Amino acid sequence: MSNQNIKILLIDDELEFISTLSERLELRGYTSKIAQDGETGITMIENETFDVAIIDLMMPGLNGLDTLRHIKNTNNALPVILLTGHGSTKDGMEGMRIGAFDFLMKPLDINELLKKIKLAVDQTPKG
User: Fold this and answer.
1) Which CATH number is 96's domain given?
2) Would residue 57 be called left, alpha or beta, if left means φ above 0 and alpha means ψ between -120 and 50 degrees?
3) Residue 7: beta bridge partners?
4) Alpha-carbon distances of 92 from 6, 23, 39, 105, rounded to whole Å
5) For residue 9, which of 17, 24, 50, 109 is within the disulfide window of CB 3.0 to 4.6 Å?
């Protein structure tokens, strides 16, 4: 699948971070949409098709793990990459146990993220 066909949902409460990340992905040919909280992200997933979701673990309200649990209960095929900022590999590992494809630490290495996105999309069965 070429970058042009990959649609990414970014869920993070830090608007400046998520807007910049969205721009960086779009400059590389990806399509991305933003949700600033887990509830909005879940609604978007229910109404649109995405190839991968990138979710921040630390958000007010519905946190990243709760958002992931909901996604895996309703749309198990959607690969999810978690972002964690506070050196919390424990939460990242818990996310993997719940069903996340992978997790990355902030500050984000964009090239590492691009590799994970490609792997997640390539390894997800197309239905």
Assistant:
1) 3.40.50.2300
2) alpha
3) 31
4) 24, 25, 20, 9
5) 50
Tokens for 5?
């066909």
Q: Which domain holds residue 82?
A: 3-123
* Beta-ladder partners of 8: 32, 52
| Residue in 105, 1, 115 with CA at minimum distance from that of residue 56 | 105
**What's the N-to-C CA distance of the chain in angstroms?**
14
Per the structure, the count of domains in the chain is 1
SS3 of 23, please?
helix
DSSP reduced 3-state for 113: helix
Q: What is the pLDDT along the chain (127 residues), one digit of tens a residue?
A: 678 789 999 999 999 999 999 999 999 999 999 999 999 999 999 999 999 999 999 999 999 999 999 999 997 899 999 998 766 788 899 999 999 999 999 999 999 999 999 999 999 887 5
Q: What token pair was written down for 11?
A: 């869920």
